Amino acid sequence: MLVSSNVTMQFGSKPLFENISVKFGGGNRYGLIGANGSGKSTFMKILGGDLEPTLGNVSLDPNERIGKLRQDQFAFEEFSVLDTVIMGHGELWEVKQERDRIYSLAEMSEEDGYKVADLEVLYGEMDGYSAEARAGELLLGVGIPVEQHYGPMSEVAPGWKLRVLLAQALFSNPDILLLDEPTNNLDIDTIRWLEQTLNDRDSTMIIISHDRHFLNMVCTHMADLDYGELRVYPGNYDEYMTAATQARERLLADNAKKKAQIADLQSFVSRFSANASKSRQATSRARQIDKIKLDEVKASSRQNPFIRFEQDKKLFRNALEVEALAKGFDNGPLFKNVNLLLEVGEKL
């Protein structure tokens, strides 16, 4: 389980988000969503240990491994494509490197022999003997042809390097998987393959994506970063949209009822506070007003763009009016006596 406790991130005088406490686990697949600039990638870096928060902390179960989609596609230029994928499992890669080093020695000491024997046991327990085959299957899944598997990363096109890094993130099959925009640079067939691959796994996942269809197909929960806070909703993206909209509408409706109640009570107090026979009732109503608390409705970080067309003249009800229209050529009339009235909002 990955736990965020009171995490706050601040740049300058205003926090990007604050006091985020949430638990990610249970094999759930969370879509981390929010407006551009709301802090999704920043929060993901904090979860992955790549960035320290201003306040708070993130903890991972000591018996669990975390994997993440790296964005530094030029960091593995001197390695082969297959080795780059296998490096996704850090412990396996370290064992493989030390094992290969000992076997490459011109002369192996007795101590080296004991050590490599222990390494062989670890290598087998980590399914190291099938590592290249498993890495190759993932590379084929993300569209990297076989002839490139043993070649250097330096010969892979930049956009395709990201596919290799996606295979790297998937390779270790970690307990917690962090994926920031995994569908970037993928064609539709590869995206469908990725959807199936993720759905077949038991890992807890946190995914950032602008692909709503992908989120609908993969995610079991949505984590919405908005208003400087994080709210988790069960369900995919479409289900989240329904639930979030209904929750906000209920909040606004409750506030509207409270405001109406306050107005009624205030009206009574204003009318009868000076009336000796009803002053006690007016005082009671004033106390009721003090007890009514409006729920805070924070401004969303989402912005809905629109285009405003300014027009000097008022648009009349009739958008188009045609009377006795005719058209023809030398060989005869094409049409004649056409009459048409099209009102605003109608579609022809």
Question: What features would you describe in this structure?
Answer:
- The chain has helices at 40-47, 81-86, 90-103, 110-125, 131-141, 158-171, 188-199, 212-218, 237-272, 279-291; strands at 2-11, 14-24, 29-33, 55-60, 66-68, 176-180, 204-208, 221-226, 229-234, 318-329, 332-343.
- The two termini are 58 Å apart.
- The chain contains ten helices and eleven strands.
- It has a domain at 74-172.
- It is an alpha/beta fold.
- GO terms for molecular function: ATP binding; ATP hydrolysis activity.
- Keywords: ATP-binding, Nucleotide-binding, Repeat.
- This is ABC-F family ATPase.
Which term fits the overall shape? Answer: flat
Report the helical percentage: 25-40%
Cα Rg: 32 Å
Determine the number of helices (DSSP H or I, runs of at least 4 residues).
Answer: 10
The first-to-last residue Cα distance is: 58 Å
Low-confidence stretches: none
Helix and strand run: EEEHEEHHHHHEHEHEEHHEE
Write out the strand line-up for the largest beta sheet, numbering strands in chain order: 5-6-7-3-8-9
Q: What is the number of beta strands?
A: 11
Main β-sheet description: 6 strands, mixed
Average pLDDT: 90
Q: Could you tell me the strand content as a percent range?
A: 15-25%
Classify the secondary structure makeup into a structural class. Answer: alpha/beta
